[in-house]
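Forwarding these from the shared drive since the link keeps breaking.
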Amino acid sequence: MLEVVWCEDDPQQRLQYEKIVKNYLLMKDVSINFRGTYSNPNELRSAIAGLKIKYPLFFLDIEYSGFEEDGLDLGQSLRKQFPFAEIVFVTTHNELLLATMERSVEPLGFVIKDDGLDVIQKKVGELLTRGYEKYTNVLESGDELFRYKRGNSNKVIPLSDVFYLETISGEHKNILYTKSGMTTFAESISQVEKDNPDLYRCSNSFLVNMKNAILIDTVLRLLKFENGESVNISVRNLKSARILFGETHKERTHE
């Protein structure tokens, strides 16, 4: 989940920004959690200390009254603490925008306080959308997702849901068997194998998720799955399939 955190020292502006974010979340069906607004760097750090936040989006004022640490310092510190963090700077000082580049903070964007509430609301919405898109892109690049292409769309599902993929010879079609059912798509099995290295090619026609196999029968050369189905193992792949199954599971080999 994308976690949104805002740090602003002006009480009135904090209320305005909080309302903008909450209104956005009411209108959008997105996996975003708004952690709240905080008045200074120390308060922010105390609020998130010990929390398991992996994908944060911070909106940071560049100056905090009574604090030597500014938003640029805070941004650099948060970047080290949260490698996947996105940062937006909120400021009235246009001349400070260049400094963010010089400090290598690499912000997602900027909100200019003098632009007026309507413009700010639109800008914050755009940045929330952009931050969420980057968050989903990070998820899609993870090792624990199964990736495939259906038509012009790139699809991803949890790898743990996949039993196996069967390619239909001569039809240029694949059938994907998952815990929620099955689906078909057209893509070469070699490309699917390349895009999903955690799957195992047990024959010319099958790519399998060995973690969801429940039994290997080395006599009949079959892999059996939780859904009650079985797939064939080629003679040349039988030894490697047996070794991989043994490494993945214990005491489930039938000979």
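-- next protein --
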Amino acid sequence: MLAPHLTRAQLKQMEGVWKSDGYGYLIEVKRAHIWVYDFNTQSCIVDDSSTHDFAYGFPSIKWHSNDSFQIGQEADGKHILFKRIEALPSACTANQESSPLAVLDAFSANMTEHYAFFKLHNINWQQRVQIARSKIEEGSSDAELFNVMKEMLEGISDSHLGFRARLGKKNRTYTRRQLRDLEPALQPLYQNLTQQQQAELTFSKFRQQWVARQRQYIVEHLFGRHTRSAGNGILRWGKDGNRGYLSISRFAGFVPTDSVTTEIKEVERHMDRIIDELSGVQHLVVDVSLARGGYSSVAKSIASRLAGLHGTGAVYHYLTRYAADSQNKQQQKVFLRTSSNSQRSHPVNKSPPTIVVVTSDVTTSAAEEFVLAMRSLPDVLHTGTASNGSLSDILEKSLPNGWMMILSNEVLLDPSGKSYEGIGIPPHKTIKLFDSDRPSQSHAVAIERIFRGESYQPRSSE
């Protein structure tokens, strides 16, 4: 694939084959074209999606020498080191076997070489691999392979671990992250459906629909029709006197393209409007209790706009990340810088608002990075319940039969060096959000109490 945004000089310097430190990538640059391979000890597959991302959205390049360079996104502090190798491994140029056993071996190797949290989940992976290989033969069906791979991941509660498969004419996805609070609260509602309704609507879809309705229910509960929304409904906000409310459902999807740069420009435009309309509030609730992730850089951009309410121009270290599958495990610190555009909303003679961030076990991934960024700011209270505990970025890997898997290879730490993977970020003040007797009403009432300031005392007075 051509890489139109790279200069001829850059492409010439990159001619050759490059292997990443961690992440399992090979890059081949030849005659102004670029290919990205998913590589492990068992397979080597051209990854069309990653090739497109590298070719058309190639992040910043920093050269260490003629034989090594680093790529990354400055916004989210993520960098990947590549070193030159002599040539593509033979597995990358040979026809890739796609038998059930070859697929299983590629799946197992990706986990062995890249997954970061076997110890956290107390998993003997090699034992699981041996058991799985004993169940798969050359003539095994796709359905049998799917079930064996599913069994291999049982007991690992990780929103960023799973796989997508094509079984006959249907697409199937498997991933499992138990929601500690919301799922038990919604199960009685789901069980009230008829058998026919349950057959047509999985619990996962039922939960997604409930979350979408609940966000609308809460803003109407607080403000009636006097609410605003932007970014395809991702951002919803309202104001009552000196109290403001902002709900964020995810940190992606603001534009129809998959361009992160375009996403950031769009969300910054929306946030400038929101900050202006909420100007003068002394109490701001930022509700990410139903937020399901997105782009790290978008989360950082929104946090930067909100940080500007304090008007300090300060820089806050809120996150450290490293690739657990890399050799050097180099830690990369991520900083939040106040957005100058948002500082206009609070004149210096007005005190900045107290910000209250609300989370639940639904709050996942980029939403959790957003929470860490907000917790680094002064006068921010984190309330609700602990977040999901799936902070690592998703690493996608192609499998030989066209299936795709995802896994977690990164470790994210707060400024004190603590990881919240698998346990979630605990709030400063715990407030139960979901009651199994009436999950919709209990959530809305809890948010209203937080909005009215009835459920907590500011951190400065504790």
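Residues 345-349 have pLDDT under 50 and may be disordered. The radius of gyration is 23 Å.

- D.
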